[in-house]
Design a protein that fits this description.
2 domains; 6 strands; globular; 232 residues
């Protein structure tokens, strides 16, 4: 009996931006009504998070106003990237954590100044929502064309996450002119906890990212795939 091909696609569940509780089938979370980004399990959590979220909320609301017009190829591409992102969140957490070498706390400052930059290109078949790998690298925020206000807001978010013993890893995903910018928070852990969750430092994580996106994973990637499921 042939085995199903390895896949890094895992449909992510929403988590509360304040208490980090996971959404369930019977308890669906609501997003912030202004920027439509963070989700909350309750009104109480949303109120408690407002002090930290206020600045990024205003920035994200402004960004929404600059979105491509609905019905245009650019807006469709952005929607496709978001759907792709939701299925590869654990993959990006794994790669971002290893690429920034966060197993060493001395590298934590990178989360304030750098992003995991990923460039995708549509598959030759033209099937919507499916992409091929074009580039992947850790890049400075200001080298991605982000303005000073956005860079400052993302740096503040990293500082706020650090106060909660978390990292804020910024994902910058681009295909053509469409860009999706998404900070993801990851719980800090000591060296032993890190090894259990993420495995030893993975210097080949970008190669894994390329194979995962292009659906060319090998048997050697099986352990990495198992770790993605543990990050849910």
């Amino acid at each position: 009996m042939s085995q199903a091909p390895l896949s890094a696609e895992i449909l992510a569940h929403r988590t509360c931006a304040f208490c980090y509780k996971s959404e369930t089938k019977t308890h669906k979370f609501d997003r912030c009504g202004a920027c439509l980004r963070p989700a909350y399990c309750s009104k109480d959590c949303q109120k408690k998070d407002w002090k930290k979220h206020k600045r990024t909320c205003q920035l994200q609301a402004q960004n929404r106003e600059s979105l491509p017009v609905k019905g245009t190829p650019e807006r469709d591409m952005l929607a496709d990237i978001k759907k792709w992102f939701s299925k590869h969140t654990q993959l990006l957490i794994y790669v971002g954590t290893h690429a920034m070498r966060l197993h060493n706390p001395a590298n934590a400052s990178q989360t304030k100044t750098h992003v995991l930059f990923i460039e995708l290109e549509p598959v030759p078949s033209g099937e919507r929502g499916d992409f091929m790998f074009k580039a992947g690298v850790i890049r400075r925020m200001d080298e991605c064309g982000l303005d000073s206000a956005t860079c400052a807001a993302l740096a503040d978010r990293a500082d706020e996450a650090a106060q909660d013993r978390r990292y804020s890893i910024v994902m910058y995903v681009r295909s053509g002119v469409a860009v999706y910018l998404a900070p993801i928070t990851v719980e800090k852990c000591n060296a032993l906890e890190y090894a259990v969750r993420f495995g030893p430092p993975d210097t080949e994580c970008m190669g894994f990212l390329e194979r995962a996106i292009d659906k060319t994973l090998t048997k050697e990637d099986s352990t990495r795939i198992m770790r993605l499921h543990e990050l849910i």
